[in-house]
Automatic annotation (TrEMBL):
It holds the Pfam family GHMP_kinases_N. Gene3D superfamilies: 3.30.230.120. Residues 214-281 form the GHMP kinase C-terminal domain. This is Glucuronokinase 1-like. GO terms for molecular function: ATP binding. PANTHER family: WITH PUTATIVE URIDYL PYROPHOSPHORYLASE-RELATED. Keywords: ATP-binding, Nucleotide-binding. It comes from Gossypium armourianum. Residues 81-139 form the GHMP kinase N-terminal domain. InterPro entries: GHMP_kinase_C_dom, GHMP_kinase_C_sf, GHMP_kinase_N_dom, Glucuronokinase-like, Ribosomal_Su5_D2-typ_SF.
Length: 316
């Protein structure tokens, strides 16, 4: 951080009027990908990786190419997929614009994820609201995207949860992950066509998030582990191994070989793992990841990103 930067609740504002915001990576803990199908999910923001955007006053609209990274520069999310890097960039940019135009108090927190997703859809990105909700809210959030809520409100019901309820979790990722942006396409069409396997499986995936909320509140971590594994198994059944990719599946299997629960953080490229047996099991997991050529980190959860102005916009 530059010495002339002053920290504020709205972001970082320099003496020149530049505004900087970060948006953190997202981990889909339970229920994904049912957010695209009127389901439920539980997600949290990950402090380990982020995207940052700086907005500087100018009489012209200028996008400065980076001399090394071509058209964009990422502080942290440049080499990872499956952690919602694209929406992190848009989320951070939106936060800068809200402060620059002084309209943060006018744009409700609940609708900001919709704005972010709308911008991404123009780029052809296929996704749901889950990632954007996690990045706008920060912390741990249960999300209900039921059709009734979406039709009536235009958004889901988002319930923040205490991050201290989570057990220690780990992130496993590959340096050359798959493209998670293409994974939803076939399943989406099958769902629209009334495919019974997809419809019933997606409902069960959504129910996993509801069960998971109860398990987390009760700190029933054995149940949480079972739900994480079931979530991935259902995804694998629906999408198939060819669609998920051998490398992505291997990350899950590496964790399971030592008895850890594991599932995709999103649509591939990274895995969230839970070792219910504690530190000795974590050590075995680290050793297995090293042998397989995967990176592993202890997960750090971002607390809520909402400030006092944001909180006043929330629906009562």
């Amino acid at each position: 951080m530059d010495q002339n930067m002053n920290s504020t609740k709205e972001g970082l504002i320099s003496g020149s009027g530049a505004i900087q915001h970060k948006a953190y990576a997202r981990v889909g803990l339970l229920g994904n990908p049912s957010d695209v199908y009127f389901g439920k999910t539980i997600s949290f923001s990950l402090a380990n990786f982020w995207a940052s955007v700086t907005l500087e006053p100018s009489p012209h609209l200028i996008i400065n190419p980076h001399p090394i990274h071509d058209l964009v520069q990422f502080d942290s999310l440049d080499h990872l997929a499956g952690l919602s890097g694209s929406s992190a960039i848009v989320c951070a940019a939106l936060s800068c614009l809200l402060d620059f135009y002084k309209v943060r108090h006018l744009i409700k927190v609940e609708v900001r994820p919709n704005l972010i997703l709308s911008a991404e859809k123009e780029l052809g990105i296929v996704a749901g609201l889950q990632d954007r909700v996690a990045q706008v809210y920060g912390g741990l959030v249960h999300m209900d995207f039921s059709k009734e809520n979406m039709d009536k409100l235009g958004h889901g019901i988002y319930t923040p949860m205490d991050i201290s309820l989570l057990p220690p979790l780990h992130l496993i990722y590959a340096e050359n992950p798959s493209d998670s942006g293409k994974v939803h396409s076939t399943i989406r069409q099958r769902w629209l066509n009334g495919d019974e396997l997809v419809i019933s499986s997606m409902k069960e995936v959504a129910d996993i998030a509801a069960e998971g909320k109860s398990a987390i509140l009760k700190k029933n971590y054995q149940k949480l582990a079972e739900l994480m594994n079931r979530n991935f198994d259902l995804r694998r059944c629906m999408f198939g191994d060819e669609c998920l990719g051998a490398l992505n599946i291997e990350m899950v299997e590496v964790a399971r070989r030592v008895g850890a629960a594991s599932k995709f953080t999103g649509s591939g490229g990274a895995v969230v793992a839970f070792c219910p047996e504690g530190p000795p099991q974590v050590k075995r997991l680290e050793d297995e990841c090293r042998k397989a050529g995967f990176s592993i980190q202890a997960i750090q959860v971002v607390p809520s990103c909402l400030n006092d102005v944001d909180l006043k916009t929330l629906s009562k």
